[in-house]
Amino acid sequence: MLAATEEKKGIQSIELAYSVLKTISNADKPLTITEISKACGMSKSQLYRYLISLCKIGFLERKEDLTYSLGSELTLLGLRSIEKVDIREKAQPFIQELNDSLDETIALAIWGEIEGPIFISWEESKKPINLNVRVGSTMPLTQSATGKIFSAFYPREKTLPFIEKELEQNGKTLEEFETVMEGVKRDGYASINDYIPGITALSAPIFNQNKDLVAAMNVIGLSSVLNVSPESQAVQELLESCRILSRKLGYSI
C-alpha cells in the first residue's frame, strides 16, 4: 500500500525541474531568473538551486547576461528520442529509393523546438562531396532549402522568432522574405545554391492527416551536377516521393 501511495505521489523535485525546463522551452527568448520564478510560481532562492543543477548537467545554459536557455545535453537527449520517431521509419524506404535513383545525398529534417529545422536521417551519395552537415545538424530558416520549407508551411508562431532574427542579422526585410515564401508555396518545393559554396539543395514538404508539416525531404548535391529546374528528374522524383509518403501518413488534399 505504501509503495502504491509513493508511486502515485511521485517525486516533486523532478516535477518542479520539468516545470522550469518547459517554461524556458516555451519562451521565445532566454529568460531571467525573475521571469522564470514568476512563471513557475517558485521563490528565487528555491529556483536558483534548480538552475544550478540543470546547468551542471547541461540541460540549461546560463548566458553572459544572466539569462537562461535550454542546453546542449537536452538537445542530445531529444535527438536520441528522435531516432525512434515514426516519421523516420516511414521515410527511410523513400530516402533509400531516392538515393539509389538519383545518386545524390538524401536527408530528412524535422522541426526542433530549440534550434529549428534539424536533420534526423542522412543517406550519403556515392559521389565525393565534403559536407559539414550530418544527423543532428540544424539549418537556418531563411538561407537553406530545408529552412524555407519550414518557413512556408510550419506554424508561423513557431518560425517567426527565428526568421526575424536571421533577417535582421543579414540586413533583409520580412516583406522580401514573404515574397520568397509565396514562391515556395506555389511551387511546392524550395531550392538554394548559395548557402554552401558549390552545393545545391532541394527540399519538399511531408504532411500528415491533419495537413500539418511533419518533415522535409532533401536532395543535396554538387551545383555543377544537380539540376533543380521544375521538370528535372530530381524535382519530380522528390515531389512524388513526398506526395506518396504524405498519403501514407493520412494526408489528402
From TrEMBL:
SUPFAM superfamilies: GAF domain-like, Winged helix' DNA-binding domain
Keywords: DNA-binding, Transcription, Transcription regulation
Molecular function in Gene Ontology: DNA binding; DNA-binding transcription factor activity
Family annotation (PROSITE patterns): HTH_ICLR (PS51077), ICLR_ED (PS51078)
A GO biological-process term: negative regulation of DNA-templated transcription
Highest taxon listed in the record's lineage: Bacteria
HTH iclR-type domain residues: 11-72
Keyword DNA-binding among record annotations: yes
Domain IclR-ED, residue spans: 73-251
Keyword rRNA-binding among UniProt keywords: no
UniProt-listed InterPro entries: GAF-like_dom_sf, HTH_MetabolicPath_Reg, Tscrpt_reg_IclR_C, Tscrpt_reg_IclR_N, WH-like_DNA-bd_sf, WH_DNA-bd_sf
Gene3D superfamilies xref list: 3.30.450.40, Winged helix-like DNA-binding domain superfamily/Winged helix DNA-binding domain
Pfam families membership: HTH_IclR (PF09339), IclR_C (PF01614)
Protein's UniProt name: Transcriptional regulator, IclR family
